[in-house]
Amino acid sequence: MDDVPVVVVGAGPVGLLVASDLALTGIRVTLLDKRVHGAEWTRALHLYPRALEMLSRRGLAEELIASGRPLTRGHFAALPVELDFSVLDTPFPFMLNLPQEILERSLERHARALGVTVRRRCEVVSVCQDRAGVDLTVRETVGRHRIRARYVVGCDGSHSLVRAHAGIAFTGPPVRATSLLADVILDRPPPCGTAPSNDGRGVLLLWPLPERLHRVVVIDEHTVGLPAHGTATLAEVRAALRRVCGDDFGVRAPRRLARVCGASYHAECYRAGRVLLAGDAAHALFPAGGQGLNTGLQDAVDLAGALGAHLAGGAPAELLDAYATRRRAAVARVLASTDLQRAVMTDFTVPGTVLKCLLTRLLAVPAANRALATTVAGLLPPSD
Known about the structure:
The termini are far apart. The protein has ten helices and 21 strands. Helices cover 35% and strands 27% of the residues.
């Protein structure tokens, strides 16, 4: 049986950042992931100023910026008045359009260079803790075996096995909204490029991807109630584009088609004894502009700081409770923002139209625009 100080489960961006920050303090970390490789398709697409500030302190931001596309404007609920990031007080007054797989590759190189042990094709099948540590049963190609750790960090996504085995509830309001997502070629891409469209008939969000692809996300009253299970079809996407925009833009050659369920869930706590949660394992946010990824990266830095101070610096274990309390409160504020955006983007009734009009007028006020841009950028301090 292996015996290590910390096991991190899930080698996405959040798990990689937790592991590498712990390694910086001299803690031996093993990172487990059942996938053979990292992300094989683009999940999140945006890094916001706070995340870029954190990555810059680790020497990673500059190479990522060179690989991405800085955008000084972004959207709030796909409303016609955009958020202006250029006025924010930060070294990175923009949103970086960057496929998640590029971020993952950079973070994995960083983690391995710091001595993190990354074990792929290694699936955790059980997590059982006692007062002194945590036993994990893992399944690899050579069979099953056990790993003993002082602490386990669950970064294994919204369907987290670590969270479930720790007995932590994951709850949210019974509100669902389905959108169609397609990574496709557009023969006639709209001139707005990355600009959102919301004209009352529906919502179109459009971002460029590598290899001449575009990420298309479309919501209207015909799609919002579709079952989220199963894949979308190109015919569904084409029909939705025609309903919302009057044109399907020559959509073809899909690389990925999906129905995405916009639901919000929050773990009842981020710590249960020697098990801690971060990222999507702790919170599932309505996918409004990549807030889940950016919020998870902030979790990672905070958690690694607290756990590193405890294990390497002798700080009391109560510091981990402070992490859990602080981040859960911070994420609750993000959830309020993304849930508001969900309501605006998926309500096609008369009251929904009125709300869109009111928020559009509010966004036109510079002070209000800056306040919302600050929130989306993640620049509010934890005490705010």
